[in-house]
Amino acid sequence: MDGVHDMGGMDGFGKVEPEPNEPVFHHRWEGRVLAMSRAIGVFRAWTIDTSRYAIELLAPSVYLTRSYYEKWFLRNQNLLVERGLIDTDEVAAGHALRPAKNLTRGPFTLADVEKVTKRGSYSRPAPAPARFKAGDRVRTKNIHPTTHTRLPRYARGRVGVVERSHGAHIFPDSVTTGKGEDPQWLYTVRFDAQELWGAEADPKLKVSIEAFEPYLEHV
Amino acid sequence: MAEHDHDHSGGSNLSEMELRVRALETILAEKGYIESAALDRIVELYETKIGPHIGAQVIAKAWRDPGFRQALLDDASQAVATLAPQVGNVGEHLIAVENTPEVHNMVVCTLCSCYPTDVLGLPPTWYKSFAYRSRAVKEPRAVLADFGVALPVETEIRVWDSTAETRYLVVPIRPAGTEGWSEVQLAALITRDSMIGTGLPKNPSEVA
């Protein structure tokens, strides 16, 4: 979707402001939100791609004004309700009002912590031979799906070079719309800055994205 | 930056977010989805165990050991896995990109906040900020200036937008004057920002 989350190349957000000696969490609740997000993962009620899409679906005014972990909290609560793990009257009450309907396993305990602090694997067997190889010139498609995609706006309809192939991975555009993992080849595609930003761009700048095969066509 | 919560123990001045988050945790615990002690442990891990000191150990080893450096550049997940007893487990799809006098690498996630958490811990606020996400792919030299970093105009800047599950770790240039230094000494030079590409390693005189 062409949402406000797709920020590459936008102007007006000001300077980057590094915070010296920044704490890992600025408030206690931020750590709880992070931990709940990780813990809920063991129930496999949704995937990492769905969780990103759920943040993109927040209203632009919410996205732009709430802090990072506030958005994570809203995402968690929305998905927990949407997937039937909790109910809205329970959120209002601040307590469970009925037993869990769909417990597929016991609670997330200390023994599960290691499972969720190591990143998962998103590689899958390739369903077909790769259409592209390192060195190929490619053009990204000019697509504007109204659902989740990982092709940023600034890199649509642009000519670049395939630099690396990463094998086949879960295709976020598919898994977030209920069409299954539909694994696709994933490539690093490199662009000259002038292709992305015009003749005035830094001639010594190159930018790459990670592009799934359906985003690309031969030039 | 918002101010810190001052009341962690209950009472009347808890923030709205603290109350809402507590309510959700209570619901999840009462319904049998989570045990709060396990959440405590996750928070503790990210506050004390999983952080940029892991990446610094990896880079320090690469600086001293040409075989490890090559293994890291060939397959960083596999290379770092060989250090698991020291640095813990890492997931797949980690990719190391090496700075040279000709090319400076910088990592961003314009669409969300993808970051090599296994080796750097949770991302700093600036990495997730709208300013960094919007500007890094378009005017990285100006972004570097916000960090006090000025590179020669002839240095190519290569920005990696992490738009999939691959995760990028920058291997900075080893500072001159560190010949014969141990891995522990070298690791003290390697800042988090130098492994994202928005900083450079410390000067040896800063830690000597």
| Chain oligomer state | heterodimer
Query: Class of the largest domain in chain A in CATH?
Result: Mainly Beta
Order of helices and strands of chain B: HHHHHHEEHHHHEEHHH
What's the CATH class of the largest domain in chain B, please? Alpha Beta
Low-confidence stretches of chain B: 1-11
Explain what the structure shows:
The complex is a heterodimer of chains A (219) and B (208). Chain A is of the alpha+beta class and 219 residues long. Chain A folds into two domains: 28-117, Orthogonal Bundle (Cyclin A, domain 1); 123-218, SH3 type barrels. Chain A has helices at residues 28-40, 48-56, 60-65, 68-82, 88-93, 113-117, 172-175, 193-197; strands spanning 123-124, 137-140, 159-169, 184-192, 205-212, 216-218. In chain A, strands 1, 2, 3, 4, 5 and 6 form a six-stranded antiparallel sheet that branches. In chain A, α1 runs parallel beside α4 (68-82). The two termini of chain A are 25 Å apart. Chain B is mainly alpha-helical. Chain B folds into two domains: 16-48, no CATH class; 52-207, Nitrile hydratase alpha /Thiocyanate hydrolase gamma (Nitrile Hydratase, Chain A), CATH 3.90.330.10. Chain B contains 13 helices and four strands. Chain B has helices spanning 16-30, 36-48, 52-64, 66-74, 76-81, 84-87, 117-120, 125-128, 130-135, 140-146, 183-187, 192-196, 204-207; strands spanning 94-98, 103-108, 156-161, 167-171. In chain B, strands 1-4 form a two-stranded parallel ribbon. Chain B has a two-stranded parallel ribbon with strand order 2-3. In chain B, α3 (52-64) crosses α4 (66-74). The longest helix of chain B has 15 residues, at 16-30. The two termini of chain B are 33 Å apart. Chains A and B meet through α1, α2, α4, α6 and β3 of A and α1, α2, α8, α9 and α10 of B.
Relevant terms:
heterodimer; A: 219 residues; alpha+beta; Cyclin A, domain 1; SH3 type barrels; six-stranded antiparallel sheet; 6 strands; 17% strand; globular; B: 208 residues; mainly alpha; Nitrile Hydratase, Chain A; two-stranded parallel sheet; 4 strands
